[in-house]
């Protein structure tokens, strides 16, 4: 008997009858899976439904379920004519980090970058140390935002431990220590980049040093030739700052 079937038989993983779920909006797709918003029958409660996933993804999503910065797993279901199970997940109303960075670029403060970076590293560190899971596919569109909180999602390419590098100008008004940290994470060779626990430690130090202190050392804003060019470069740089946390982990 497979691990998943054993968990279902022991009622450790909840199975939901698909007739209780009313699918509405299509969110996106990846690989062979599609993601929809669904409401629980006769309620306003929303879930995200990821259809047609492998048993391994179900199992790893279940294992990764108990961290506040990882999307919450509510169980599985099976729709008519589907050979594979579908995941029933917490619905992240804020969309993806990628969309957030595009839409809120000009108002994004470095303090929010720090908050998001700390939440991402906290989740990655917990996956590595507590669960022995390597996510394997971290990028801004697999990182969601719910109530201004980061939620890692999509364990389709994840694995348990046993079984391109970016570069950019720093974001204007970014803390200098934060800039140095992500430059370390830019290194071409993954083995030369700092361990995720070190990233987490440095972010905590930066946070404690700047708590209640507005007089911080930051990278100055540089004038560009065109407003549209500045915005494009700023968006790219914001994405790089958080992308670099995803390249090794």
TrEMBL record:
<keyword id="KW-0067">ATP-binding</keyword>
<dbReference type="InterPro" id="IPR000719">
    <property type="entry name" value="Prot_kinase_dom"/>
</dbReference>
<keyword id="KW-0547">Nucleotide-binding</keyword>
<dbReference type="GO" id="GO:0004674">
    <property type="term" value="F:protein serine/threonine kinase activity"/>
</dbReference>
<dbReference type="GO" id="GO:0005524">
    <property type="term" value="F:ATP binding"/>
</dbReference>
<feature type="binding site">
    <location>
        <position position="50"/>
    </location>
    <ligand>
        <name>ATP</name>
    </ligand>
</feature>
<protein>
    <recommendedName>
        <fullName>Protein kinase domain-containing protein</fullName>
    </recommendedName>
</protein>
<dbReference type="InterPro" id="IPR017441">
    <property type="entry name" value="Protein_kinase_ATP_BS"/>
</dbReference>
<feature type="domain" description="Protein kinase">
    <location>
        <begin position="21"/>
        <end position="249"/>
    </location>
</feature>
<dbReference type="InterPro" id="IPR051681">
    <property type="entry name" value="Ser/Thr_Kinases-Pseudokinases"/>
</dbReference>
<dbReference type="Pfam" id="PF00069">
    <property type="entry name" value="Pkinase"/>
</dbReference>
<keyword id="KW-0808">Transferase</keyword>
<keyword id="KW-0418">Kinase</keyword>
């Amino acid at each position: 008997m497979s691990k998943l079937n054993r968990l279902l038989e022991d009622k450790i993983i909840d199975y939901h009858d698909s007739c209780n779920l009313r699918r509405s909006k299509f969110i996106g797709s990846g690989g062979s899976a599609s993601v929809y918003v669904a409401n629980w029958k006769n309620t306003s409660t929303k879930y995200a439904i990821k259809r047609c996933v492998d048993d391994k993804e179900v199992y790893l999503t279940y294992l990764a379920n108990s961290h506040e910065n990882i999307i919450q797993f509510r169980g599985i279901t099976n729709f008519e004519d589907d050979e594979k199970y579908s995941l029933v997940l917490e619905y992240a109303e804020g969309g993806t980090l990628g969309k957030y960075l595009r839409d809120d670029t000009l108002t994004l403060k470095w303090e929010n970058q720090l908050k998001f970076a700390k939440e991402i590293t906290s989740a990655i560190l917990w996956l590595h140390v507590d669960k022995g899971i390597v996510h394997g596919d971290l990028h801004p569109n697999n990182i969601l935002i719910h109530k201004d909180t980061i939620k890692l999602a999509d364990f389709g390419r994840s694995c348990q431990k046993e079984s391109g590098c970016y570069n950019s100008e720093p974001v204007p008004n970014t803390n200098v220590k934060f800039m140095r940290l992500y430059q370390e994470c830019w290194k071409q060779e993954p083995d030369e980049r700092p361990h995720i626990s070190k990233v987490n430690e440095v972010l905590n130090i930066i946070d404690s040093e700047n708590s209640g202190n507005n007089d911080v050392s930051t990278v100055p804003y540089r004038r560009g030739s065109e407003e549209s060019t500045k915005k494009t470069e700023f968006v790219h740089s914001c994405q790089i700052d958080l992308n670099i946390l995803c390249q090794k982990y």
